[in-house]
Amino acid sequence: MTDGLVLDGVSAAYRDTAVLHEVDLSVSRGELLVVLGPSGAGKSTVLRVVAGLEPVTAGRVRIADRDVTDERPGRRNVSMVFQSYALFPHLTVVENIAFGLEVRDTPRRLARERARAAAETVGCAGLLDRRPGQLSGGERQRVALARALVREPDVFLLDEPLSNLDLALRAEMRAELRALHDRIGATMVHVTHDQTEALVLADRIAVLRDGRVEQVGTPDEIWRAPASTFVARFVGSPAMNLLPADGPLRPRDDAPTLGEEPLEIGFRPEAVALDATEGTPATVDRVEVIGEDAFAYLSLAAGHQVVARVPAARRPERGAAVRLDVRWADAHLFHAATGRRYQP
Amino acid sequence: MSASGEAPPARARARAARSPDRRSRRHLALMLTPYLVGLVGLVLVPALVTLGLSVTHYDLLRPPTWAGLDNFAALLEDPIFRVALLNSVVFALVAVPLRVLLALGLALLLHRRARGVGTARTAALLPTAVPEIAYGLLWLWLFNPLYGPINQLLRAGGEHGLTALGRTPPQWLTDPTSARAGIILMSLFTMGETFVVLLAARRALPRDVYEMAAIEDATGWDVFRRITLPLMAPVLALLAVRDAVASLHFTFVPAFVVTDGGPPPYATTYLSLFVYQTGFEYLRYGYAAAATLVMMLLTVAAVLVQWRLIRRYRRFFQV
Predict the structure, then answer these.
(1) Chain Cα centroid distance, residue B83
(2) Which residue of A208, B138, B192, B250 sits 20 to 30 Å from the alpha carbon of B219, by its own alpha carbon?
(3) What is the ipTM of this complex?
């Protein structure tokens, strides 16, 4: 497969502070890569470096097998959807969409025609004569998408495009975005801090932490084999439980061979069984009920905390004494010192 | 009766609901008073006095006598007034766009952070802060045809007191056209306020819109024409209206201090100077009042014309 986008040891700095540290990423042509990370991890900087809005201090950027590191933004053939959408407030929707074509000297009529077609694709064809000020958040988002689509760029860059939408609309646009990607088969880099969005949308996810790539993998890999405690706890809500491997909880079934060094054992809230007859004793601190699910916050011996997801109908009472149980198959092991995944 | 028992609380409620409204109205009136007193005392009353004087003959010594529309009829016939009117209109038509353009150019040049930008901004602003009379006297020196720095600069590289192109340098204060140009030149450097407003307006424009344009490979000209200019149009229009109104006033000090209305034939006699000389030097108060009224009407007309223009380009205002 040819490469849509390659970052090769890219570092970037804002003033004197390093924001990206030798980031290596490659996105295949037609792939949707989601860059996931907490705020301040450098996610947006990755996009800005690809777009050429931010210079690199080291490394190369290649788009469609072309080294664009020293090219200006307009020569990189990328489209970007900004978090704020960056629509031109004084232009109508159709003028906004056609802007990129018109400044590239496409004849006006042709530009308008293609703008109309792009608007059709994202479902905002009815808004062509309105101005951004007259649009709702979701409508602006569609216009911004149409503007990115109208030219056929090598890479689409989406900077948290869904973060300004309310929850229902976000879920809807998420699905539409995925469908759109499948339909046009474009190379996309989508930045978000929302792990659900990442898991739903991505072909692959790159988890970013403090300007370094923590793990790159399919949503399944990120979920089932997190490369570090950071990835393990960042993806999943509530976060994965982490306990010392020699602590109060001993998982059931056959244990893997454990080395000498100190390890941490991680397991997701849904891996915890509470109705075990034998297991680790714990007390229920509090219980949160969210519809069908309940999250029980448990105290173990020596002050360790564990969250368990249980069906709301069978949730324990606050203060109740329970016994919890986890299977080795559901457990993850990490080096206590580095936080990296432990391979037995 | 139960009704009488309920009445007082109901009244109290009504009073409670009304009183904050009445109190805030009192506050409003109190805060408006100083402004209203100033407006009445310094603008409305003098305007009415002017209106009254304009239909009289009055020389400060004898009591005013009724003149009807004589003063206005005389104005129409007065060649000096016609020259002053033309001078003022030409000045406004040339100087106002130039001032706004210069301020816009400087604002667009200096809105980014870079080495020396702070100093350059201060330099652009400084002439505006010089007291008007001092500013006038300074230009009197700058314009001096023999030892003034401007002509010395123009003569650089030339021989026999001519410019490098072999032409005579402008005789700033003695040649009518050069004198008019000189007054306009003087007015260009006092656009500091306009510059500051435009600088702030440019810096308030969203950065991502410009980044978007960079990604779309828009040229500098495209960015200016399609983004910066339309987004700044409301501020530019406002400044142009303000400058047009003010242009009738800021011709006064230069013409008074630097050229004294000359060189002949009345090359830099503007309406403001005409009114001043007619009133305070020739003591023809009625006649000066009539000219003032014409000046006022001219201001109103200028504002109306620009208002219409702005309305036509209203879409820029619905940003």
Answers:
(1) 21
(2) B192
(3) 0.85
pLDDT band at A2; cut points 50, 70, 90: low
- Residue B26: how many other CB atoms lie within 10 Å: 10
On average, the pLDDT of chain A sits at 91
Contact list in A for residue B227 (CB cut-off 8 A) is 88
**Per-residue model confidence (pLDDT) at position A121:** 86
Ramachandran category for residue B169: left, alpha or beta (phi over 0 → left; psi -120 to 50 → alpha): beta
How far is Cα A156 from Cα A81, in angstroms, rounded to an integer?
8
Round to whole Å and give the CA distance between B125 and B107: 11
Smallest Cα–Cα separation from B229: which of B319, B291, B95, B114?
A: B319
Query: Residue written as tokens 């030798």?
Result: A22
What is the spatial distance between Cα B286 and Cα B134, in angstroms, rounded to a whole number? 32
Over residues A134-148, the mean pLDDT reads 91
CA B261 to CA B264: how far, in whole Å?
8
- Per-residue pLDDT of A31-88, as tens digits, reads 999 999 999 899 999 999 999 999 999 999 999 999 999 999 999 999 999 999 999 9
Q: Do domains A3-231 and A239-335 have the same CATH topology?
A: no
Query: Which parts of chain A fold into alpha helices (H)?
Result: 43-51, 93-102, 108-122, 137-150, 167-184, 195-201, 219-224, 229-234
Give SS3 for A184. Answer: helix
A3-231: CATH topology is Rossmann fold (3.40.50)
Q: Which residues of A touch B318 (CB under 8 A)?
A: 131, 133
Query: Which pLDDT score is estimated for B166?
Result: 74
**CA end-to-end span of chain A:** 33
Q: How far is CA A298 from CA A239, A293, A305, A317, in A?
A: 14, 16, 6, 11
Supply φ then ψ for residue B125, to 5 degrees.
-85, -30
The reported pTM is 0.80
Domain residue ranges in chain A = 3-231, 239-335
H or E element in which residue A215 lies: strand A212-217
The label of the residue with tokens 């949730």 reads: A315
Q: Which residues in chain A are closer than 8 Å to B214, comparing Cβ atoms?
A: 52-53, 72-74
Distance of alpha carbon B203 from the chain centroid: 24
Tell me whether A95 touches chain B (CB under 8 Å). Answer: no
Residue of A nearest to B234 (CA): A90
Arch. (CATH architecture) of A239-335: Beta Barrel (2.40)
Chains A–B, number of C-beta pairs less than 8 Å apart: 67
- Chain centroid to CA A116: how far? 31
Query: Coil, strand, or helix at residue A309?
Result: strand
